[in-house]
Amino acid sequence: MAVVWIPSMMRDLTGGKERVHVPGATVGEVIDALEAAYPGAKERLVVQGRLASGIMATVDGKRALRGLEQQVSVESIVRFLPIMAGG
Amino acid sequence: MSQDKHSLAGGTNYQVVGTRPPRHDAPDKLTGRALFGPDTKLPGMLYGKMVRSPHAHAHIRSIDTRRAASFPGVYAVVTAQDFRWNEDPGAKLDESAINFAYLQENMLAREKVLYVGHPVAAVAASSNHVAEEAAELVDVQYDVLPAVTDVGAAMRPDAPLLHEHLITQSLSKPGQRPSNVASHFQHVKGDPSQGFAQAEVIVEHEFTTSTVHQGYIEPQACTAWWGLDGNLKVWTTTQGAFGMRDQLAKLLHHPMSSILVIPTEVGGAFGGKLPIFIFLEAVAALLSRKANRPVKMIMTRAEVFLATNPTSGAYLKAKMGATREGRITAVQAELYFEAGAYPSASVIGYFGFAMGFMFAPYDLPHGQIDAYDVVVNKPRTAAYRAPGVTQVNFPAEQLIDELAVKLGMDPIAFRLKNVVHQGSELIDGTSHGSIGAEEVLRAAQSSGHYGSPLQGPHHGRGVAQGYWGNWGAHSSCAISVNGDGTVSLVSGSIDLSGTRTTVAMQAAEVLGLSLERIKSSVGDTDSIGYTEMSGGSRTTFATGIAAITAAQDVVSQMRGRAALLWGVEVQDVSFDQGIFTTHRGGGRQMTFAEVAERLAETGGPVTGRANVDPQGWGGAFGTHIVDVQVDPETGKVDILRYSVVQDVGKAVHPSYVEGQMQGGAVQGIGWALYEGYQYNARGDMLNPGFLDYKIPTALDVPMIETIMVEVPGPNHPFGVRGVGEIPIVPPPAALANAIYRATGVRVTDLPMTPVRILEAMGVI
Amino acid sequence: MSAKTRVNAKINGEQVEFLCEPRQSLLECLRDILGLTGSKEGCNDGNCGACSVLLNGRVVNSCLVLGVEVQGQEVITVEGLADWRGLHPLQQAFLDHAALQCGYCIPGILIASKALLDRETNPSEERIRTWLAGNLCRCTGYDKIVRAVQDAAARLKQARREVNS
To answer: Less CB within 10 Å around the terminal CB: N or C of chain A?
Structure first.
């Protein structure tokens, strides 16, 4: 089960928990699992089939370039962060 | 695998890397032969001019172009109607479509104008002067709306709304009411209230920074030529030719292969010429298609200030607590950034940087940062070197300084007490990789500057530290071998300040060639693979890796050719410092040139190529030290001495690294002391010119001392780290800290003009 | 469009004749009519110095001079500094000191520096900075530019000594 760090603004859904374990082989599946455990999570992260703009997912510290389709392994650490782009 | 010996970090016996050869493009730039954006000239070329809104906020009631179109010498007129738009403006569009709609609206307004200078139409005419006259004949009727140019005012519940459907994007429960707050993000680490409870000293202030412009001396400029065969050629000054091409393909509904973007030399960019926003090129292209002639468009200096993409001003609240021993226990900050006319944070991505890097130099057990992106009636904001980070470094490093003063600690010693190392966790939960934070602080502490005495009334020395994460991203490079043993290297990275040379130097190191034997050029979008824009301090790192990889590919192929010539297996051929060797047949050797001479008979041309997307780059730390003297009657700040200490990984060309350190520092000095957009209540910018928007001159700064610390950057064969952006981060805070020590007052608003200093001192 | 005026002037040592409208600046004439794009436009109102040329030996912002004003006058642009023997010592010094980054301000700075070194053989750092205060550079922070001018002054002094000895 992947470890998902819950952004502080979403901890109202998880009762304050900052770290949860959910199954999923892709970022999208992980989010679906989050939604099942904590209803309301998905609508905050996903807009019209894509990660909400301004947000990126990282898997094991690397930016998930494939978005919701990025693969996640059983020991992966998944985070949702504001995007970072060049300047 | 290649058996050459020029690989892997930590080496110090380099032949080319680390030396100071002349730049490939220097002679052309020194003699006036180099061609920049405004220099393109084509037969039959027309001149284009935008028609721009005089109002900061208004509905467009009508646009009548008839008089302009019939003016003698006018060949074409375009408005937003000439572009294909999404069908239903009220439809629920996905985020990227919304952002794309904003790009189009910013390029040519359709229903609303959102800042003074917002384009509404364009004309193409036989001369610049005729185009100017014709532009004035375009009749636009507006219904003027109240404007808001201040972040605080824009956030009030009764503020005029720029976008009727804009709902704050955040990870909280979605809001329902539209507002001018485009997005809100937050990081929380640990338990801030507990952290502050543990603090024995707490400091807290509010700060403001002004909108500032990147101030490149070359204005935006392009020439577009839409041929009858449907092929569009665009010469333009940009930080990214491929990004530009792909945006144009979307805007014009035209295949990418029918668009050729030829990047000209660039006269300064610093994040203001990213292909994320398109100002002129698509409009010039449509004018060219309508007129069946090439069309050149060059912005005036006023247009550059009014209608390109300066960087955000901000309103910032920050708080920091520490123990009496000097250990930071907690931080808290609220950051309110100007987005300009359209949401910025989700496009430019500066929240991640601002929030992540604000306190990145310090070991933080507890913290909370909230960041808000607020639209206002100003041009949309973008990056100015390290986007968002200078703005947050100004408060952070002043709080650090104030704590050091309160605790009676040396400012560098205080920072060392809280310094981060590899593995230290940032406030966003990520961890530092291989970094040189401590090395930089110690180098600053033991520098001649820091150790020198500073005496005199109203003299003060200030220190500030900053962090920038750098970048990798896609780069493409091809190296072709010529029959005389010289090589031609083409890469897709726009050369802003010498990277075609620093990239070639890395290839030269691998090939065992002197730099004079490598011709290095920047390709256009037809001649090389997709390459990400030049920015984020990525080029010498990522395109360097592409060049190294392409060079290794060349070596590998050439070893095969040598093997053929000798009649041996390729495994029996080694390569070192430009010489191919085999032990077979009594031991034989050939130089690179000797193998190159015989390519035709051994299989034909040799081209090494690489398309890379390197990861795991290292971030950069910088500590600046500045000595000032403040005139107590006029408030004028004289900079007596300035030092930039920075972890540069491995300086491929030390002169260019010094140049980045010096140039970035002086930009930061301008941001600190002189620069800022000024507005009246109507939303007019009052200082859109170099007279009243003052950037530093040669007389305003001393020599800038540079101390390069080299902690090898990870994941690069020579240990390169990005160096270009971090130098703009510490100067405002360093100067504020120096002014504090010189006068006893802390200035919390940028720019720290003489008037503000005198007000803070209570003199006026 | 107003009627064009014929202008005769010496540009970079050559007699040149061109037609221009009275409203066209010297900068425009150099760039758009004569094809000498080395002089740059940065502001068009005399505040950045990117358009600096020598008019009868004096530094002027060519954006503030009308094309018709150079009738019978002598103009030197950046294109006139080097010759068949090579780069001017100033240009060489800038190259050696890596005193350029994007290069856009450099033509104006070279022209202004030449005007200084034509008058003074040993300008101090402060003198150089004062003289160049009208030439904005956004990339370099001016450090290497000042060093290059100091070095060029020394080289020119040395060259004069060699000629005279």
So the answer is: N
For chain B, where do the domains classified as CATH 3.30.365.10 start and end? 26-34+472-612, 434-466+618-764
Contacts of C35 in chain B (CB under 8 A): 41
Contact (CB<8Å) B703/C143: yes
pLDDT of B91 reads 52
Q: Enter the CATH code of domain A2-82.
A: 3.10.20.30
Q: How confident is the model at residue B86 (pLDDT cuts 50, 70, 90)?
A: low
The architecture of the domain spanning B434-466+618-764 is 2-Layer Sandwich (3.30)
CATH code for the part of the protein at B26-34+472-612: 3.30.365.10
Q: Where are the domains of chain A?
A: 2-82
CA–CA distance, B512 with B504 (Å, rounded to integer): 12
Which residue is closest to A85 within chain B, CA to CA?
B349
Q: What is the ipTM of this complex?
A: 0.97
B143: which residues sit within 8 A by CB, 6+ positions away? B58, B59, B61
Residue ranges and CATH numbers for the domains of chain C are 5-80 (3.10.20.30), 89-164 (1.10.150.120)
Give the pLDDT band of residue B92 (cuts 50, 70, 90): low
The CA distance from A87 to B272, in Å, is 8
Q: Could you tell me the two tokens for B111? A: 């229903």
Among A61, A80, A87, beta carbon nearest to B535: A87
Q: Which residues of B touch A58 (CB under 8 A)?
A: 430
Please tell me which residue, B344 or B524, carries the higher pLDDT value.
Answer: B524
- Distance (Å, rounded) from C-alpha B322 to C-alpha B363? 12
**Chain-chain contact of A54 with B169 (C-beta, under 8 angstroms):** yes
Assess contact for B592 and B513: CB atoms under 8 A: yes
Between CA B8 and CA B5 the distance in angstroms is 9
pLDDT attached to residue B196: 98
Residue of C92 and B12 predicted with greater confidence: C92
Provide CATH code, domain B38-146+214-307.
3.90.1170.50
Is-contact B180 B161, C-beta < 8 A? yes
Residues B536, B470: contact at Cβ < 8 Å?
Answer: yes
- A23-62 pLDDT per residue, tens: 999 999 999 999 999 999 999 999 888 888 789 999 998 8
Read off the pLDDT of residues B21-66 as tens digits, 9 standing for 90 and up.
999 999 999 999 999 999 999 999 999 999 999 999 999 999 999 9
- pLDDT in the model for residue B98: 76
- Find out whether A86 and B535 touch, Cβ atoms under 8 Å: yes
> Helix, strand, coil shares of chain A as percentages rounded to 5?
25, 30, 45
